[in-house]
# Entry
Amino acid sequence: MTIPLIIYRSLRQHALSTLVTAASIALATGLLMTVWMVRAQSQRAFLETSTSFDGVLAARGSELQIVLNAIFHMESSPGNISVADYERVKKHPAVKAAIPVATGDNHKGWRIVGTVPELFTDVEYTSGKKFALAHGKVFSPGAHSREALAGSFAAAQLGLSVGSVFRPSHGLAHAPDREHDEEYRITGVLAPTNTPADRVIWIPLEGVQHMAGHAESSRSELSAVLVQLRAPSAGFALDQYYNKQGERLTFAYPTSAIIADFFNKIGWFDRVLALVAFVVVLVAAGSVLASIYASMSTRQRDIAILRALGARRGTVFGGMVLEAMVIGALGAACGFAIYFVLMTGAAELIREQTGVVISVAAWHAVLVWCPLGMIALGALGGIIPAVKAYRVPVAETLSPLS
# Structure
């Protein structure tokens, strides 16, 4: 009888304990890979998105709040700035592009942002990529324009297409009783960018400024200005001018460092999830040990017969470790199914909340070393039972009981 056949019969004989042990390893593998991949991909996606603009000029306030509001559309504005501030920074010799944005309205909870058409025609939202239209055209600027451009995800979720008509609601949260009188018509839908822009409905800047019900002062105000610099080092001069010398405005710069600092601050949450995953891994390794060790009392006679037929101690020892590795491999393989389910749910949730897309099919080294590590841990858990099998006394075990 060959070693693989002995292992197969042993696993089948102890099918229930084998399945339970493999399930615990699968859970540990899937959970660990999911935590690792969500952290790695979300950090990369947020950093790539934040680098589309070097800085954000806004009212005095938290730099993180300003970046989350103006670039990720996740926060409220700390206040408004004047159009004169926008014109001033736009004319600065170090500024390559300055895009004004105005917020404060929504459509069924999806944020409406007022801006200029140049954002979609002249500016790269990430290195080497400009916005593209899936359908229609960009809205026309002006206070009397009632045209809108829908991000791809917002259009899909709201069922908007070219020609659709909607009424903005005041505020960032959905409130049917706070609808404005103006009706806007969708003139275009953006192609997917996998950025927060996909979750936004864009209208002319003047549309937000002159919206009925807004304060009269809002006609000459903005929420923020997105700034691209001719050279990254130029941002230090603007930082000195607005942040160190001024007291009225904040120049959030550099945006990538602000987002990186944000992830560092919530790094404890990642560590807690990773700790939970590693505890599950240790429990899974322990279950391999307990499962095989518990079956040793019923196997001693089989092992003694095997030894009597000529099997060496090393062969018996290796067979037990190999059996543990097979359980580990079975669990690791099933772990990919759990990873797919968890990752799909996490990706959908992150896209819905932030617009940032993470991919279930993306490659990372953790997809190799985690399953291999689980197989190695399985082998480690099989060592103690293997030592016990190694020491089984042949003569005493095969001698008659009476």
